[in-house]
Amino acid sequence: MVGCAMLLAACGGGGSSTAPAPVANGALVVSDCTIAAGASTCQATIHWSATGVAPRVLLAGTTVSTLMAGATVVAVGVERQTVGLFDGAQLLEEKSVGGACAAASAWDESRCLAFATRTIERASTPFVEGGLAITLEVVVYRPLGNGPFPLAIFHHGSTGNGDDPSLFRLTYTNESIARFFAERGWMVAFPQRRGRGASDGLYDEGFTPDRARYSCLQAPAAAGIERALADTDAALDWLRTRAEVDAARVVSAGFSRGGLLAAVHAARRPTAIRGVVNFVGGWLGEGCIDAVAVNRGSFVAAAAFPGAIAWLYGENDPFYSVAHTGANYDAFRAAGGQGTLSVYRRAAGLSGHLIINDPALWSSELDAYVRGLAN
Question: Whole-prediction pTM value?
Fold first, then answer.
């Protein structure tokens, strides 16, 4: 017996048969969902896998499953809920899940309600590239009720530095803008310029010769502006022919490059456009060598528009500082332009270039401007 005990000790057995405690780990994947108009919840999916002795999946503190792995569907609303994967009391992973109202609908404290009908249209143009006729993608939000409706055309901006071609094919819309105008009885159209979104043609709005990024020089920027204005003109002409549009009441609006385009285009088509809304407009970020010449020169040209232009900008804008914008606005006014410049402050840490996503900041002022266009 002594020899056996010594042998076990020498071999590391120690005489114990206790197994080591299992190591707990796990993975959690959640999928958000879209709440249909008229509904209050949608079905989100939770996937998980775990190793351990007592796995639990909790949604907002309620146990959903105790299986080691699996998937389940849960009803969620617009308020995000916490999903936790536990081994006993040990938290292995935590995420959140929630729903979002479908496009052209908004939450009314109990459900998602439609504020417009959203369609995707193809606008004809006079352009031909590679022997093919070019059409533009136009996303239309038609307000509820009977037309004809006044029209707000909203023009998109650029894609940052222009160095990621995958961004060119993203269709731009903004639900805050669509809802603001549609709830006031305006139809809203988001045309995508050539080569953007699902529009045909080449995206060519001022690149470097190798198309690696946007150029910071005046000549290619000016050529890009002219090309963009041609697209803007084609979209306006196509939209004004629609039976549901009141062609006598058209607002040209836009974000970033689109804000500058809206202002310059209105100066060229003053009989077709009644008002202009410029959200953080500019063409070249002020870090560019020719930013002052391009941006200021464009806004001086926009001063020929006979009506008032609403300038809406934000503090802490990485592209256009308040000083740069203020100098552009002063030059615009000195050239005879009419309008007001409003500068808003978002919450700490948020980019002022995206004030468009904070309608609580500008809705009251923009509402007064739009109502004034009826006079």
Answer: 0.89
